[in-house]
Amino acid sequence: MKNLTKQYEIAKRNANKFMKAGLIPQYFEALLEMNKYKRLMTAVVAN
Asked: Is this model's pTM higher than 0.90 or not?
């Protein structure tokens, strides 16, 4: 769980960095990555 949280936070920082730089395709990829980790964290908590 700790590892998933760390990866989620890294993806979140990358998303913020890409949005500030105007790199929209990379921003959306980072958002998809955040969504993936968020779903995995929810699944881990549910089990």
From this structure: no
